[in-house]
Specification:
The structure is a homodimer of 275-residue chains.
Chain A lengths: L40 H15 L7 E2 L2 H8 L3 H13 L3 E4 L3 E4 L14 E3 L11 E11 L2 H6 L7 E11 L2 E11 L8 H6 L4 H9 L5 E9 L3 H7 L7 E9 L5 E9 L4 E7 L1
Helix pairs in contact in A: 1-3, 2-3
The first copy, chain A, binds a DNA duplex (19 and 19 nucleotides) through helix 3.
Chain lengths: 275, 275
DNA sequence: CAGTGGTCTAGACCACACT
DNA sequence: GTGTGGTCTAGACCACTGC
């Protein structure tokens, strides 16, 4: 197993400058050293686990190796692996379950059905009125306008999938969404595929396209709908709506989805917890 | 050093049921025991530190005892205190600074000037256009209407302070806020006091009234302003605005402020990061 | 230099889930 | 019982701050 026994620099290329015990250093003059800054071991381990996650070594929902196994693989103590996984769990990339193990996070089968949707019914009857009814208005392949391309880190004119749909709760159309996805990664996407899938769209992205949304940013405004939007939501053009522009990212902060939502807030509200 | 040497139950009343080694327990029949559930030591330590914070043993901005000192005080290892403080730091109740110590968090002198204000200018010129200009419209003591009272966990008719003000950025009025505060805790509040204080209102609450806002909940809607609101914000009554209802809490989830904001979103947007 | 938070380890034991 | 995550400890050492 372990060939050499050294304290730091276990397998991982260590960038930490080892403070030499002798005052006369081998490198005569290299004093300020603005460079690599120092990265703790557990951060490096976290990076390695992250790489495996990205590479798909373990698929969403699957069990990853136990802390002891990972500790052995990386030649560090279990505590160090633990701290690395702690951070990954805090970022919702993995999920721990005592007695069972650590699982790769997934948008499917998650305790919170819609992780990124903060819209809630005003009435406190919890877990929404069951499922949302989805209606696909449109699903087509187009060339990305400049602004869409910019937000998705593509070039203007690159192919993108564009989807428009309406979500209704207990019969009331409440959300109108326009979704843009990089054409490259989402080649065969069809309206049927979207409507067929039960549960969050993001779960389908994982299963069908191997794309895992890891975090997102939202910009929220109050707007008035145009005639078409108003009609789809069954409101007048003078009804103020919440405009929610969401960019969702995979690993490494790569944007993989742009979603522009119009939310009716007469029966629902956007909820946000501040810490 | 430590007088007695026991593993668990150090000073702190331990609620964990000690699984007796002998199968024949002293208490004949008490099988299901749905009760106390088990609370790890570090959680209890966290609770004790929390109590000291609430009691004002250390004031906002002050240094709390070192991890070693706290460990000695509570008769636990430094690592256990560390984990307790880790959580407190994650909840923004304290702030750690390597080499210096751990400080009680404060809304003043914080790296993020407005911790609970998520409105940002559309242009990316960062840290806002300097300070906001504040204009107090009104500040009076009133009897709480039913709904206000409910949100502040008061009784209808209890005295509350009510403040209305407008925040302007580079000359443009952008935020209209109505603030309600329990009359009990905020007795002598005056318009002068609010306008005089530089920096976040929440920092003033800490200094002048010893009230620390620890977390908050926001409900967001899109609305149209009434005539008075429109005038104060220099917009028409057909301009959609963001309605942000915030309830801010002190320790123990006690609500201490209700704030209803109307945000103009023509030059600004509400930003939210989803994880 | 001493003091503080931050990292790392090794080992013991506890709580939980499965079998 | 075995294996997993979760807790707790004790001690060593590192990085940063300020005297």
């Amino acid at each position: 197993m372990c060939a050499t026994t050294r304290r730091r620099a276990p397998t991982i290329p260590q960038n930490n400058m080892s403070s030499s015990s002798t005052t006369t250093s081998d490198t005569p003059v290299a004093p300020p050293a603005p460079g690599p800054a120092f990265s703790p071991l557990y951060q490096q381990i976290k990076g390695l686990i992250l790489q495996s996650l990205e590479a798909g070594e373990w698929r969403p929902g699957e069990l990853i190796p136990s802390e002891m196994e990972l500790a052995a693989r990386f030649r560090v103590s279990q505590g160090t692996v633990r701290k690395a996984i702690d951070e990954l769990a805090a970022e919702n990339l993995v999920m721990r379950r005592q007695g069972k193990g650590t699982f790769v996070a997934t948008h499917a089968a998650q305790q919170v059905q819609y992780r990124f949707l903060k819209l809630q019914p005003d009435t406190g009857d919890q877990r929404e009125e069951g499922r949302a009814q989805r209606q696909i208005i449109d699903c087509k392949r187009v060339r990305a306008p400049a602004e869409i391309a910019r937000l998705l880190a593509l070039r203007s004119g690159d192919a993108v999938m564009q989807v428009r749909r309406v979500l209704a709760f207990v019969g009331t159309p409440t959300i109108l969404e326009d979704i843009w996805l990089p054409g490259q990664a989402f080649k065969g996407l069809t309206a049927e595929q979207i409507s067929a899938y039960q549960g969050p769209t993001y779960a389908m992205f994982e299963l069908e396209y191997g794309v895992r949304m890891v975090r997102a940013d939202e910009k929220i405004r109050a707007v008035l709908p145009d005639a078409e939007q108003a009609e789809l939501l069954h409101v007048s053009t003078s009804t103020p709506l919440l405009s929610v522009e969401r960019v969702a990212y995979t690993y490494n902060d790569v944007p993989m989805e742009l979603r522009r939502g119009l939310y009716r807030t007469d029966t629902h509200h956007y909820r946000n917890a501040l810490n």
